[in-house]
Amino acid sequence: MGNTDHGNSKGDHPESRDGIPSTNGFDNRGNEEADSHPRQHPLSQQVTYREPDEYTRLLPASAHHGISGQPPLDIDDPAVSPLNLWSIRFLRYFTITFLVIACVWWLVLLVTTFVSPQGFHSRGGGWFAFGYTSLAIGILMLLLFSFTIPSRAEEVVQSIIAVLLLVNMIIILSVPGLRQEEGWIGLASAIFVLCVTLWAVCVDRSVEWGKKEEEERLTGRAESRRSLKEWCSVFSALTIMVIFLAITILFTGAISLRAYDQSLEVPGKRVWVEDHNYRVHIYCTPQHDDKGREKVTVFLEGGERAVANGLLDWAQENYVNGTIGKFCYWDRPGYGFSDVAPSPLSAGMAADALSEALVKIDEKGPFILVAHGVGSIYTRIFASRHGKSIKGLMLIDPLHEVYLPNIGSPGRGFLMWFRGVISPLGLEVLFNAIFKARSREDRIFGRSSYLNPKTIKAKLQESLAANTFTKPEVSTSKAILSRKIPLVVVSSGEGVKRDHRWDWAQKEASELTDNLLHWDIVNKAGHKVWETADGWKVMSKRIEKLVDVVIKEQEHLE
After folding, report:
1. 29, 210, 213, 477: which could form a disulfide with 88 (CB 3.0–4.6 Å)?
2. At residue 21, what are phi and psi to the nearest 5 degrees?
């Protein structure tokens, strides 16, 4: 037993003739070596070893796979999504919050279009704020639509939009008149849409990074190709974003024109009314050489357009030649150089604003009121409330109250609202400015003034209040208007011949008082009677007669 040696060298191991170790149960060392190495899968013994080269990975395909032992996912698997990252989910939830805020603000602006709560009045009409908020909602909805499919082209377009919106905001802040018209509502909306656009750029970039990370983690590589569905989504989102870019360019052009129009000198005074809510423009001529004819002031009220759109030229000529000793005119809220009033605004409310403005400029009359078209409604209400200071009425193709339902029809109201909504685009305004050389005067009180956002808002207010407020006010004024006031009516010959109802309305207007001096129907004259030579002469002759009558009455009282 002492001669037994268990520490023999490898030559002592029993071997077969082929040199393969024996597998019998008496070979203890062979069993120990077999137990010291882990057993391998049979297939792994067939993999041939390859030397590392330039195609060999430095790191495992995925740490996750290395740990879990699962094979990589297909790139089209729904589980491969950037939303797996909590940071990307947070961005999506925050985007939804932005969208909710934008929708709530949009609803607030929609309500203020029809009723202006305290502190929510925009003196410029509020259409640009509404347009900015609508653009913000569109950008956010598009961002959520293509949230998991970011596009570098879309990011570029969004960046351009952000730059243009920044330019718009700078224009609003740097032009005092524009800044005052837009107010805090317009500024807040401009800042909000700028922040939304910048947020969209950041979110797209973050989602692009998250998508790449998840693809590398779950598939082993970042995928550069896109499926047909993804390409359709990217193309659709990019097309809509380009439309948003075009809208922003139009916004910039329209607001640049508005800023340029602010440089036009105001001929009269802008007077604060209704506890500094808004300003109305009122103009009075300087002292005239003829002191006798200055005893009465001719006050002009415009019709569907501002007084400066034609009627002022007629008054100016009669002032220069001495027919009129003194005249004044004003721009109703939203017209010409006046601010937009809070909604709702009826004819009686506008007449009260005029009364306040006249007191503040110390203009006490007595007055001869000259009104055109729909302005006769405002003038009649004003005259009924200032009976002692009103010495004469001259109505030029006046609008009768029976036409108020037409003004207040739902169709006309919707049309005015729709025109206001698209007014920030400035489509027709920009076209007229570029191709028809329309000037600042044209846009404020001239040929293109009907496209002015303030005028559109004023006409919308006029439509909304026509049946509910203005009609009862006119009925009341008709009952209390002094029957002794001298009255002149000058009617359109074309209007009378074309519409028997209009003929009847002109006859009714001639019976507003018991002191009718003249009722003239000017042949071949349209609604703007003064645009024909005969109309100009008739109006000049009648205002001279009316002034003479009032002066004689004043001298008799003295």
Report:
1. 210
2. -60, 145
